[in-house]
């Protein structure tokens, strides 16, 4: 038989140290780390963010209200207090890594678009029309230059 090295996809596992995005409840849109697994449906989370408005207090969260991210705080002991969690959170720069992720950028873009004024929406419309015109012009040039079959 051949030597096959099978690797398990790690980022979907519910584990102590996994960073989750809270999807519903009073802390919607905030990040927290899994500190302890209560049972197959609930986890104990703690979110000691470096930003004051993004702090999530320690509480039990149903997994149905959380989205697992691919960020993990390595070597986080089970049931660690808020102090050690905060130190490891800052050491691993979770807030910075999250800000650079595609999901965070997408949600920021959606939020910014949601809060546009009427005039800003009009400016976006005009810019999109200009961009579409330039693309169509370049496409027409390519079609004209292409040999006829």
Automatic annotation (TrEMBL):
GO terms for molecular function: RNA binding; structural constituent of ribosome. Gene3D superfamilies: 2.30.30.30, 6.10.250.2270. Keywords: Cytoplasm, Ribonucleoprotein, Ribosomal protein. Pfam families: KOW, Ribosomal_L14e. One of its GO terms (biological process) is translation. Residues 13-40 form the KOW domain. CDD domains: eL14 (cd23702). Belongs to the eukaryotic ribosomal protein eL14 family. Component of the ribosome, a large ribonucleoprotein complex responsible for the synthesis of proteins in the cell. The small ribosomal subunit (SSU) binds messenger RNAs (mRNAs) and translates the encoded message by selecting cognate aminoacyl-transfer RNA (tRNA) molecules. The large subunit (LSU) contains the ribosomal catalytic site termed the peptidyl transferase center (PTC), which catalyzes the formation of peptide bonds, thereby polymerizing the amino acids delivered by tRNAs into a polypeptide chain. This is KOW domain-containing protein.
């Amino acid at each position: 038989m051949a030597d096959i090295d099978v690797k398990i996809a790690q980022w979907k596992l519910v584990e102590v140290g996994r960073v989750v995005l809270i999807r519903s409840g009073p802390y919607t849109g905030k990040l927290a780390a899994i500190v302890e697994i209560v049972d197959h449906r609930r986890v104990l989370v703690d979110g000691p963010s470096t930003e004051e408005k993004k702090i999530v207090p320690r509480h039990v969260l149903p997994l149905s209200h959380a989205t697992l991210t691919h960020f993990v705080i390595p070597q986080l002991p089970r049931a660690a207090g808020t102090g050690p969690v905060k130190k490891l959170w800052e050491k691993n720069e979770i807030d910075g890594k999250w800000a650079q992720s595609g999901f965070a950028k997408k949600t920021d873009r959606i939020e910014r678009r949601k809060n546009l004024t009427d005039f800003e929406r009009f400016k976006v419309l005009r810019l999109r029309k200009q961009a579409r015109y330039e693309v169509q012009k370049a496409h027409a040039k390519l079609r004209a230059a292409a040999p006829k079959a």
